[in-house]
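User: Before I run my own analysis I want an independent prediction to cross-check against. Here's the chain; please return only the structure tokens and, at the end, one sentence I can use as a sanity check.
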Amino acid sequence: MEYSNLLNEYGPADSPETVAAKVAECRAKAVANRTEEVYKMCYSCIDLTTLSCNDSESSVREFVRKAVEFRSNFPSIPDVASICIYPSFVETVGVALGESNIGITSVSGGFPASQTFLEVKMLETAMAVENGADEIDIVLNVGKMLSGRYDEAANEVEVLRGEVGRETVLKVIIESGALKTPELIRKASLLSMLAGADFVKTSTGKIDVAATPEAAVVMCTAVRDYWLRSGRKVGFKAAGGVRSAEESALYYTIVEQILGSEWCNPSLFRIGASSLANNLVSAIEKREVRYF
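Assistant: Structure tokens:
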């Protein structure tokens, strides 16, 4: 499908100066959101992530065990939204979760670089879903975006959307730190949504520049514009480098200010994180907690 033509139906991105002004406004308003209620909501929106070369079946089982037993230690705090792992651990996580309502997110499609054969991406994605993944996080082909091959990048998303099926959530990582400019970040977000993404996600966390408030503002504005034109709500996920409770409140505020409070829940807002979980619990408990 020729997705690039559809971009003409949307206006250009805001200028860097306008984006910076919106970030400054959200930073000021985020101070009021540094509350226990917001921190609990942010915790419930976490995709608790382990994506390390050191991961093993035993380490992943232990990681999941802590997530499952969390509520018995902190009954006033909700569970995280999901556990995010490499596709080879999907079945391991499923068994370890047991009857828990925590979801299973698998990265896929040649994560984190997306530089492999489309057929490999298709098979990896299909296997992750078959093994029990509730959600799939893929990476938009950044090289194709940077070289202006927008239709090819979007068509890969469309193909993987077919492999995922409609019962599984598809998140598309645009790697905003590599795209850099508001215009490219906006185009990548719109192309992903037009091709079937249920969420657009900032980053893999595997390059130097991960999630930034500036990218979040551009992406959430694209989500809003897509929703106003299509009527379909797409979620936003900040991932990579979101560590402090205050940072989570800022991303929550960006979503709240641009998209509205109806987006401020796990069905439409996620944070990909590992160390953030401990820091949010510490902020809620008002004492240092190192649970995970």
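Sanity check: The chain has twelve helices and eight strands.
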